[in-house]
Amino acid sequence: MDLVLYGVPLSPFVRKADVVLREKGLEFEVETVSVPIPEGYDEINPAKRIPALRDRDISAEGHEGVIPDSSAICLFAERAVPEPSVYPKDAYAFGRALWYEEYADSDFAGVVGMGLFRPIAFPLLTKQEPDLETARETMKEKLPRFLDYFEAQLGSDEYLVENTFSIADIAVVNQLINAELVVGRKPFEPWPGLCGLFDRVSARPSYQPNLAICRKVIPEPVDLG
């Protein structure tokens, strides 16, 4: 397979696909596609979102050979290279892992992205003042219910499903990474289980290429006080 991943490293969804491809040992190139989405990208992904994955052995252009959406890409990688698996084999555990992935990618991502990451990262990248008021409100009023939920689901285990590393942990930690990039670790200390999950997952070799780039782009978090 001659694979190309379209997107940017700061996207938690691009990171999800990137990490799973690396966990599977699949080699790929990264082609930058950022927001606003460039003209013609909708031929690759009609949803006009990143990431998308192309297998140039199938087609080097157009919609042929393309898999849009991070979840579809991850399942493709699982089918292409079954081991090591990032999805549980047991049916119930598989369903739970998909639920955590979906919840992290939708509701949790919406709060982290719109309430923390965009109000801080976008202004910093354009040399403007970050919107700390929105970030503080998000951290105080909106984010705790998600953090409480994942903390409770994790309990005393090291991972969310069957106490084994899976797509559930990848999806949740990817959102935590974007939050940690902009506000640091301190606001999350009241959730020690999640902090431990963050440390275990983000330390994996599959994460290091993406994190190295992200920490160059956003080298220092802001202090919410």
Task: Please tell me about this protein's structure.
With 225 residues, this protein is an alpha+beta fold. It has two domains: 3-80, Glutaredoxin, CATH 3.40.30.10; 91-217, Glutathione S-transferase Yfyf (Class Pi), Chain A, domain 2, CATH 1.20.1050. 52% of the residues lie in helices and 8% in strands. It is built from eight helices and four strands, in the order E-H-E-E-E-H-H-H-H-H-H-H. It has a four-stranded mixed sheet with strand order 2-1-3-4. Helix 1 links the parallel strand 1 (3-7) and strand 2. Helix 3 (91-125) packs antiparallel against helix 4 and helix 3 (91-125) runs parallel beside helix 6. The mean pLDDT is 96.
- What value does the average pLDDT take? 96
Name the beta content range: 5-15%
Number of domains: 2
| CATH domain fold name of the largest domain | Glutathione S-transferase Yfyf (Class Pi), Chain A, domain 2
| Global outline | globular
CATH first level of the largest domain: which class?
A: Mainly Alpha
The whole-angstrom Rg is 17 Å
Strand count: 4
Q: What structural class do the secondary elements suggest?
A: alpha+beta
CATH-derived architecture of the largest domain: Up-down Bundle
Spatial strand order of the main sheet? 2-1-3-4
